């Protein structure tokens, strides 16, 4: 997963002022330490300005010089037009090429760059608005998307989608994450404890076809937990309740079916 | 007898000279030659490539019924076969199919033979046909049979389309070193 971090602060530290070098040359000098085995972030890159001051380079210059000496596969020295031109970016969003946008942003930018955060946030908002969560579900970008939505208090669309696809366990994990970030969910600690229990179980991507008694036990707890969340925090209460009710009926049928089958096989 | 021979020789020289004068022109009649060329052009309008066709027309052509009838669902180069002597085709295709605005070969390459196929970064439906669906690489001119000139144009157009996001491709996977971001915490 690409890390979710704060926007970087500009580097502005003067190493030395040497007025004796004031009109030594008509061009600025850049020095890069290209010693083997140093990470790009820790590399020493400095510039000697025309007025003789020696200062550390800012992020854009650092990025350019790092790319010149240690090129990263897929990154361009010049920003791709699809990120700089609004029209082209919007056309990509319209065509729902979210994964391509995010993958390319990962390669082109560092995660703490302002441009990266702008691009990803626009993309996440577009995904959220059009309910296209499934396009990102099995990618490395789903975690950051979920985090973004919860951070900005707009996770209800995702919650609805999860409930409609009938995966209560994910809904509980989402609630637990919200409680971990904001701490505003009623009985959030119960949700967190339940999430701890859920996480070791295999990931569900669709409605289960067969269930055990242990599954039934966990899922009924999950339903209670989600009910509480809907009552206390949800912004789309009626829709969530409707979706949960649909799930409950489906699940009851599934329980009846499995118990009936067991009885028919003579295990009960 | 000798005098008679001399006179005949002289007469011959004079006639040869006069012939020469009539055949050799010391000034050129340009107007005449241009009109001759124009006549030549009019002879084969199918080989004329001086007319520039806009990309929008080409894009519409690729969605048209006429295109469907000509090429079907297959890429435009599938039914093209290069002419060459011997059992193996030369590694390089010909330099160009068009000289002085006219098709100068009997077997022009798949792009040159159809004047409504225009290579441009906006014409993504055409560009896609030259990218391998399995590897995502641009197909070699040896396989597609494009002339070197058109192949070079194709490379530029595809690179532009990738840059502008008109065509998507598999971006190389970037691995993150998380220890750089957890500066004060142990993982």
From TrEMBL, chain A:
Domain of life: Eukaryota
Protein known as: 28S ribosomal protein S22, mitochondrial
Gene Ontology cellular-component annotations: mitochondrial small ribosomal subunit
PANTHER family with a match to the protein in the record: MITOCHONDRIAL 28S RIBOSOMAL PROTEIN S22, SMALL RIBOSOMAL SUBUNIT PROTEIN MS22
A Pfam family hit: MRP-S22
MF terms in GO: structural constituent of ribosome
Species: Manduca sexta (Tobacco hawkmoth)
InterPro entries: Ribosomal_mS22 (IPR019374)
From TrEMBL, chain B:
Record's subcellular location: Mitochondrion
GO BP: mitochondrial translation
GO CC terms of this entry: mitochondrial small ribosomal subunit
Record-annotated membrane-spanning stretches: none
UniProt name for this protein: Small ribosomal subunit protein mS40
Keyword Ribosomal protein: yes
Family the UniProt entry places it in: Belongs to the bacterial ribosomal protein bS18 family. Mitochondrion-specific ribosomal protein mS40 subfamily.
Gene Ontology molecular function: any one: structural constituent of ribosome
Alphabetical list of SUPFAM superfamilies matching this protein: Ribosomal protein S18
Pfam family, one: Ribosomal_S18
This protein's UniProt keywords: Mitochondrion, Phosphoprotein, Ribonucleoprotein, Ribosomal protein, Transit peptide
């Amino acid at each position: 997963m690409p890390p979710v971090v704060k926007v970087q602060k500009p580097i502005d530290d003067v190493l030395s002022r040497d007025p004796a070098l004031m009109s030594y040359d008509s061009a600025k000098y850049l020095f890069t330490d290209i010693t083997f085995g140093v990470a790009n972030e820790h590399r020493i890159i400095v510039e000697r300005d025309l007025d003789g001051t020696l200062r550390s380079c800012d992020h854009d210059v650092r990025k350019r010089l790092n790319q010149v000496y240690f090129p990263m596969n897929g990154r361009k020295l010049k920003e791709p037009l699809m990120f700089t031109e609004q029209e082209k970016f919007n056309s990509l969003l319209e065509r729902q090429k979210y994964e391509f946008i995010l993958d390319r942003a990962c390669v082109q930018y560092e995660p703490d760059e302002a441009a990266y955060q702008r691009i990803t946030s626009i993309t996440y908002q577009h995904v959220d608005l059009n309910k296209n969560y499934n396009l990102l579900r099995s990618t490395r970008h789903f975690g950051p998307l979920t985090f973004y939505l919860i951070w900005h208090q707009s996770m209800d669309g995702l919650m609805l989608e999860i409930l409609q696809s009938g995966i209560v366990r994910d809904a509980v994990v989402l609630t637990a994450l919200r409680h971990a970030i904001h701490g505003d969910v009623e009985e959030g600690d119960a949700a967190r404890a339940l999430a701890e229990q859920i996480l070791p179980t295999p990931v569900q991507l669709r409605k289960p076809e067969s269930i055990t008694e242990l599954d039934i036990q966990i899922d009924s707890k999950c339903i209670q937990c989600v009910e509480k969340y809907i009552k206390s925090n949800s912004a789309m209460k009626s829709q969530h309740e409707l979706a949960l009710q649909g799930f409950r009926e489906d699940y009851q049928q599934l329980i009846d079916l499995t118990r009936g089958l067991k009885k028919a096989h003579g295990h009960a | 007898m000798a005098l008679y021979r001399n006179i005949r020789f002289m007469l011959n020289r004079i006639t040869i000279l006069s012939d020469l004068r009539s055949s050799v022109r010391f000034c050129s009649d340009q107007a005449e030659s241009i009109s001759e060329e124009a006549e030549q052009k009019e002879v084969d309008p199918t080989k004329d490539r001086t007319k520039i066709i806009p990309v929008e027309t080409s894009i519409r052509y690729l969605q048209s019924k006429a295109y469907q009838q000509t090429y079907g669902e297959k890429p435009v180069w599938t039914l093209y076969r290069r002419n060459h002597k011997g059992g193996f085709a030369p590694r390089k295709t010909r330099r160009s199919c068009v000289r002085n605005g006219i098709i100068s070969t009997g077997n022009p390459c798949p792009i040159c033979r159809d004047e409504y196929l225009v290579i441009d970064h906006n014409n993504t439906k055409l560009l896609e046909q030259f990218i391998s669906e399995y590897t995502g690489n641009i197909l070699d001119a040896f396989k597609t049979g494009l002339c070197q000139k058109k192949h070079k144009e194709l490379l530029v157009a595809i690179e532009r389309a990738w840059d502008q996001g008109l065509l998507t491709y598999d971006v190389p996977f970037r691995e993150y070193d998380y220890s750089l971001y957890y500066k004060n915490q142990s993982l």
